Amino acid sequence: MLERLGCQVDLANNGFEAVSAWAGGAYDLIFMDCQMPEMDGMAATRAIRKQELPGRRIPIIALTANVLQGERERCLAVGMDDYLPKPVRPKLLAEMVSRWTASALP
Fold this sequence. Notes:
The chain is α/β, with parallel strands linked by helices. The chain has four helices and three strands.
């Protein structure tokens, strides 16, 4: 879906890979799955926030099938900037990308 919006996408299979990719790359936005193996999205977000330089905060959007009350707040409390429930709807995804990136989508 992101590629159809014109985004360049890198995938991580777990939280460790997500943190490593962030550390080695130049990204505009991270969609962080909360339920990844080995290191979940919450721990990966905390690790990224701990390593970020002042003034260089990358937007991190939670992706989760957990839509229980309080989940959005829990994601924001660990340092995520927004919340997108699964299943992801294309229109909401496009709105989220536009909201958190400097470049407008086509």
